[in-house]
Amino acid sequence: MISRNRRTFILHTAGLCAALATAGRALAGPALVDENDTTAKSLGYRAKASSVDAGKFPKYAAGQRCASCRFYAGAAADASGACPMFPGKAVAADGWCNVYAPRA
Fold first, then answer.
1. Residue 64 CA to chain centroid, in angstroms?
2. Separation of CA 94 from chain center
3. How far is it, in rounded angstroms, from Cα 97 to Cα 15?
4. What is the reported pTM?
5. What sequence ranges are listed for the domain High potential iron-sulfur proteins family profile (predicted)?
6. Which of 8-17, 18-27, 31-40, 91-100 shows the lowest per-residue confidence on average (mean pLDDT)?
7. DSSP letter string over 32-57?
8. SS3 7
9. Using CA atoms, how far apart are residues 100 and 22, in angstroms rounded to an integer?
């Protein structure tokens, strides 16, 4: 027969492990957009703006990148940030897509 203290210890340990596993995922942040994602392909997203095919996307101009787009929600020093074009995911600060609009 298991004592009450041992049972309580096991339950608390299991609860702590579950909490730590969940916290690790919550702190990791959203995944980066994959260039092969359906939405990314339709918007011409590239993780490196320098790799954009200007012939295919004539709207692109050198120097444009997600970090200077008005839709980018990351800080200037961040390597990636949120974008409403890709809900639940992050875009690279050095990326670009066809929805690019300069900040006012």
1. 19
2. 13
3. 43
4. 0.71
5. 27-104
6. 18-27
7. BPPTTSHHHHHHT-BSSGGG--TTT-
8. helix
9. 35
